[in-house]
Amino acid sequence: MSAVRKGTYVLFVTLGRETPVNVGALGPHTFSPGLYCYVGSAMAGLDQRLRRHLAHDKKLKWHIDYLTTVCDSSEAWESYPDPIPECELGRIAEACGAVPGMDGFGCSDCGCRTHLFRLSQDSAERLIEEAGLSRHAADQAR
Fold first, then answer.
1. What is this structure's pTM?
2. What are the boundaries of each domain within the chain?
3. Which of 100, 124, 99 is nearest to 114 (CA)?
């Protein structure tokens, strides 16, 4: 039996059109078309968490589920084996040009404004490079 990998990640989600979404307890929000990134952690199983996030059909549990079930595409990048904490990944994303995508999104267990950001392709590439992220193996096979 292989060991459970623990790590943090950035999930990139693309919306091709204006998309109204009821984000659970956060309520309704209309997302503009574009590229978004969500920063998260998976200390009880990185591979399982990312497989779940990349699946289109699932029970809605986390804020990001509300976007991944309606997005046009998604891809996962991981911070492993020496994970950068998710809040720090968010700070790096902002330093690379990302802007907050929705207050309170994905950050109910910390003091951050949000863990969801809207960004350009150039900002996404800078984030991947600055954080030393690698493409998640299950995502490469898709």
1. 0.93
2. 7-137
3. 100
